[in-house]
Specification:
mainly alpha, two-stranded parallel sheet, 5 helices, about 70% helix, about 5% strand
Length: about 200
């Protein structure tokens, strides 16, 4: 049985993460903003009709929360890669021992080494599967937390700018959108702004 390189396991997770990341924030934001806009306006004040776009990938790679999430994911990835490489090194040593000493070993010793090889291969497969699951769950958690922090910012800006909806700039099906519609930098600036200081405690 051939064990796929661990790097392939991570690459599949990374690509899936990017596909999910490019849509998760603005799909939810647009749905919420459209619902919000539908209840706005009266005969004297019609509902907002302006739209805006946001580059979700830029938010993920430039905002403080996105960079922190990327750093945590990279650390987890590096830790699992290091363990996978150590396991691969042990397997290579065992394979080499079998190859170089097989002609001089007793049948019982050969069977023992072959069992060790089979056990190590099974352990590597289990580790790769467990790591893929762990990294996938960590990715989903990080994206969920990013979305939780991004959505209120997008909604607040939409209300301030009287926007009816915000769309993903590159994944919404739009053929063209003017740069003037892009509010990505405003979203990132708002997300990266320091939290306001708590009000002073009244003196007694």
């Amino acid at each position: 049985m051939h064990l796929p390189p661990f790097s392939q396991v991570w690459e599949s997770i990374r690509l899936k993460s990017l596909r999910v990341a490019t849509g998760i924030v603005t799909v939810l934001a647009a749905a919420s903003l459209i619902a919000w806009a539908s209840g706005q306006g009266t005969a004297a004040t019609p509902p907002p009709t302006r739209i805006a776009t946001i580059d979700v990938q830029k938010v993920l790679t430039t905002s403080n929360v996105g960079k922190a999430a990327s750093a945590r994911m990279k650390k987890l990835q590096d830790d699992r890669m290091a363990k996978a490489q150590a396991m691969s090194g042990d397997m290579a040593k065992l394979e080499n021992e079998l190859k170089t000493r097989k002609s001089t070993l007793l049948p019982a010793e050969i069977r023992r080494l072959e069992k060790q090889r089979a056990d190590k291969r099974a352990a590597m497969m289990q580790f790769a599967q467990a790591a893929e699951k762990e990294l996938g769950e960590a990715r989903d958690k990080e994206l969920g937390e990013i979305n939780t922090q991004t959505l209120p910012v997008v909604q607040a800006l939409a209300r301030e700018m009287s926007l009816a909806a915000v769309f993903n700039k590159f994944e919404s099906g739009m053929i063209y959108s003017a740069d003037s519609l892009d509010i990505t930098d405003a979203v990132i600036a708002r997300m990266n702004a320091p939290a306001p200081a708590p009000p002073p405690t009244p003196s007694k």
